[in-house]
Design brief:
With 328 residues, this protein is α+β, with helices and mostly antiparallel strands. The protein folds into two domains: 18-179, Roll (Nuclear Transport Factor 2, Chain: A), CATH 3.10.450; 191-325, Muramoyl-pentapeptide Carboxypeptidase, domain 2. Helices cover 20% and strands 23% of the residues. The chain has helices spanning 67-81, 90-99, 191-198, 206-213, 219-229, 279-291; strands spanning 120-132, 136-148, 154-167, 172-179, 202-203, 234-238, 261-267, 270-271, 296-299, 312-314, 322-325. It is globular.
């Protein structure tokens, strides 16, 4: 996410690919990107659905602000992006969404989530805020998806979906879906992109991988990620695609869609949002990001000592990740 308009707290706060199994869209433990359970054995020769994974449903972990908002967003994406044998197509997706009590027309906004495959399974890696205000929110649902191929073997894909919600006194409703659109891969990726993709200490979700391959992420961003990987193993939630175009709740362009920012949701295996994560770990990562060239670092706690008055910031939106932004 990009820097908030002052004062902090007023502004709270999506390569290629797709989404989440109807009832299973996440990691085996809350907020985990661990490998899903092994594929089941074929029930019959040539069955197109036999080899798909069966990921566990994503659940909010400790420390989440408004977990009800995230769950509402995730469940809609799960319902659209994962289906049993024969459940492909918009009409079937509309029925699954309606069964949640949500607007079935949302299925028509799912784009790549509804690939032409006889069955799909989906895992939500993480659900991160793209914005959180009193009566509106953006939840960035980061997904991996497996599609049943012609020979029954799973084909991997994935996406990040910017899910918009509106809030009422007792219930939040999903109002729109904006799936990631990373664009085609570049013919010859630049050296920093190649090194980032090869660095095992930087874990990227499918949409972020596609962003890097497309050449849409600026060099200083990639170089800073490589510098940070020298001291930390970290997991990125969002780079460019799948993020709101504007800083949520404002008319100001976000750094993300311009390829000038990345968000980190887990550091050395510790979710940023988890209150059990050592505060000094998150703080040291934020300060290292600033030292690597970021002009604007946001996270769950306000820090002092930046080169400028607003180099470090904190608000409800950045309670669940570290934002690292760069100038053009």
């Amino acid at each position: 996410m990009s820097p908030p308009l002052p004062p902090p707290g007023r502004r709270a706060v999506l390569l290629a690919g797709l989404g989440c199994a109807l009832t299973a869209c996440s990691s085996p433990r809350p907020n985990s990107s661990a490998t899903p359970s092994a594929p089941s054995a074929p029930s019959s020769p040539g069955a197109p659905s036999a080899a798909l994974p069966s990921p566990a449903a994503w659940q909010p972990g400790p420390g989440e602000l408004r977990p009800d908002v995230k769950l509402r967003a995730v469940r809609v994406v799960e319902a659209i992006g994962g289906w049993p044998p024969g459940g492909q197509g918009v009409a079937a997706a509309r029925q699954r969404v309606a069964a949640l009590g949500a607007d079935p027309a949302l299925a028509e906004q799912a784009g790549p989530l509804l690939a032409d495959a006889p069955q799909a399974a989906l895992e939500v890696v993480y659900a991160q805020y793209g914005g959180l205000l009193t009566d509106s929110a953006s939840v960035l649902v980061v997904c991996r998806q497996w599609l049943a191929g012609p020979d029954g073997a799973p084909v991997s894909a994935g996406s990040t979906v910017d899910v918009r919600l509106g809030g009422a006194a007792s219930r939040w409703e999903v109002t729109a879906l904006h799936p990631a659109d990373p664009g085609p891969a570049a013919a010859a990726p630049a050296d920093p992109a190649v090194r980032v993709l090869a660095q095992p200490r930087i874990v990227l979700p499918p949409a972020a991988v596609a962003d890097v391959r497309a050449g849409q992420v600026h060099g200083p961003v990639l170089e800073a990620m490589l510098t940070l990987a020298g001291a930390y193993a970290f997991e990125v939630s969002v780079l460019r695609s799948g993020h709101p175009l504007l800083v949520f709740g404002t008319d100001r362009p976000s750094d993300h869609p311009r390829g000038l920012a990345f968000d980190t949701w887990r550091i050395e295996g510790h979710p940023v949002v988890d209150p059990a994560t050592p505060a000094e770990l998150v703080e040291s990562f934020m300060r290292a990001a600033a030292a690597a060239g970021s002009y604007n670092v946001g996270g769950p706690r306000p820090l002092s000592g930046g080169r400028t008055a607003n180099q470090f910031f904190s608000d409800d939106t950045h309670h669940d990740h570290v934002h690292t932004g760069f100038r053009d």
